[in-house]
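Supplementary Text 2. Reproducibility record for the structural model of the 255-residue chain.

All settings were left at their defaults, and a single model was retained for analysis rather than an ensemble. We include the record here because the model underlies the residue-level annotations in Supplementary Table 4.
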Amino acid sequence: MKESRLDHWEEFWKEKNNMEEVYSNSDRVVRNIVKLTDVKGKKILEIGAGTGRDSFPFVTLGAEVFQLDYSPNSLKIMKQIADTEKMDVTIIGGDTFQLPFQDETFDIIFHQGLLEHFRREKAGALLKENIRVLKTGGLLCVDVPQRWHIYTAMKTVLIAMNKWFAGWERSFSVPELKREMEKLGLTTVHIYGEWMYPSLLYRVTREALRKIKITLPLYPKIPGLFSIRKALRNALRDTPVAYYTALSMGVIGKK
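Retained model, structure tokens:
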């Protein structure tokens, strides 16, 4: 049975140690959480933090930030960024299924690009462990790939060919993820969708050209088109249109 293993992530973060070559997540986690609560003084945990790019911005908003990952190469990247940017964060090597924290420790917990790497039973155990260390009244944000996207079709083919960078991965629909979180006692308070920028086609093309020593810019800016796409994304990201067409979507539940 195919699975996502530590060696997949060690290799991935080894190749992605140059942060100038890592695409941003457009601060979507921060943007959606701050719609719901003032994070100043809150204890926030990012699980499967990778580079920490989604949780570092919370430091500038006055939160106490903890970043957890099990990949040594990931931890090295986060430490390097924290030192370079002088970010006061707590970086922890740990197991998401046995979090090294007491019950009801955090006001906010989130993960982006984590839950999809586990089959249903383990994903449920992961969410239960999240909820254990979340305070009553706290928020859990789960950000995952949205099923109805060409990315899912491409991923399925590459997994079958044993070419997928993470070994194995699944996708979710909004109703499915919402239902799974509510079954565990959370109340859904917000849903969002986020389109990929630059587009998937551009990213695939850029990676292919890199292999033959042709380098395109990380973010192309075509006059006019960039502004139009940005305006559309901003107008539609919190609507059902985004929930079923965007690459990524998130559900935020309250304990």
